[in-house]
Automatic annotation (TrEMBL):
Ranges where the Isopenicillin N synthase-like Fe(2+) 2OG dioxygenase domain occurs: 156-192
Alphabetically ordered keywords of this record: Dioxygenase, Oxidoreductase
Gene that specifies this protein: AOP1_0
Signal peptide, first to last residue: none
Lineage, top ranks: Eukaryota, Viridiplantae, Streptophyta, Embryophyta, Tracheophyta
Originating species: Vitis vinifera (Grape)
Official protein name in the record: Putative 2-oxoglutarate-dependent dioxygenase AOP1
Mitochondrion keyword on record: no
Any Pfam family: 2OG-FeII_Oxy
GO molecular function, one term: dioxygenase activity
Oxidoreductase keyword on record: yes
Amino acid sequence: MLDHAVGPRHKVRLGLEEYGCFTAAHDKIPLELHNTNSSTLEELFDLPKEIKVKNTNHVPFHSYLGQISSIPLHEALCINDATNIEEIRSFTNLMWPAGNYCFCAHLFSKLVAELDQMEIKMLFESYGEEKYSDSHIGSTTSLLRPLKYRAPKMMETNLGLNSHKDKSFMTILQQNQVDGLEIETKDGEWIEQLRVGRLTAFSNPIVVFEFWLVSRPVVCLYAYADLMDLFLSSVLSHQGCGFPQICMNFLSAMIIFQGHMDLPLLLSEYKP
């Protein structure tokens, strides 16, 4: 267990270095927004395929993906520059020409991007390299990816997505009440995400998994029922932000929104 006298910056650092994960409470994402997102994701993926395939982009894997024989349970869409409200409006109008006021992707992206930036600042500060944090943050853009893993049919595999390493700097995940994510530790063991309701504490805490200082975590997904996610990824938009090698080693993180969890770290303790 981490020493409770240690400040939040170093709790983040110690948790990531020693355990590969930590839990934290963040009360800026309202439970109502979480519930609205869950219902709107169902509407989104219920749209006809001919509508969803309109989500296109010249960047590989930044378009609609679905009904692929090797990963039949997996379906995904993508919104680039998700903190830009015009990009959200463009996507919304593409999917729902008559509009959909319940699609709160911009608010979610904005709030989670703020969380992402706070986490980055805490990490840089913990290494005494805070002067580089703004440069790094300014070099990234936010990518929002709605995901669905449908429940497998009879005699069908429940593997939703093969083991892989995310290429983004940081990924923040909000998912519905269905488990399925597994993460490989540095020792080669596969661990399941912590389950909802294990301990009641605060609404909408987060769990940060595997911000390894040497390599990105390997993750895979299993679907036992319809599993829907919202991923927000920090993607480096250009090079030359100038932070040193110790900061270059911050390769990836996985943050998971849940209903209730054990919370050794409160992000509200953090004072910039």
